[in-house]
Specification:
Elements: E1 2-9, H1 16-32, E2 39-46, H2 60-65, E3 67-74, H3 79-97, E4 104-111
Parallel strand pairs: 1-2, 3-4
Antiparallel strand pairs: 1-3
Helix pairs in contact: 1-3
Length: 119
């Protein structure tokens, strides 16, 4: 089971939302072995003012390029497997969407299976 949140600037192309979801799902299936039926992706575009950072560190153009990805999934994967996942996801995002790898922020949150509840 996995729940993925993707946040990005609204200046991205209209199909960015769908494409990023497809890429993340593919890489999670191939590298982390998460079945498609157990992977949920919520992707949302945000206005310029919604992406905040310490003033002076990033300019407006840099902030518009950032893509935040937070993935909550069952615990148990090795550090090497996680590193392989991060590398593959960044590579595909750069190749298929033109996102600079330096603008991709990935946060993996591992939880025990007991922390999921379904209807």
């Amino acid at each position: 089971m996995a729940l993925v949140r993707v946040d990005f600037h609204e200046s991205r192309p209209p199909d960015f939302q769908e494409k990023i979801g497809e890429i993340i799902t593919q890489v999670m299936r191939e590298v982390l072995k998460v079945p498609d039926a157990e992977n949920y992706v919520i992707a949302e575009a945000h206005s310029h003012t919604a992406v905040c950072h310490q003033p002076g560190v990033l300019d407006d153009a840099q902030r518009a390029q950032i893509v935040f990805i937070q993935i909550t999934l069952n615990q148990g994967r090795t550090t090497d497997l996680k590193q392989a996942f991060y590398a593959e996801l960044k590579q595909r995002m750069q190749e298929q969407l033109g996102v600079s790898t330096s603008a991709i922020y990935i946060n993996l949150v591992e939880v025990d299976r007991a922390n999921w509840a379904f209807a």
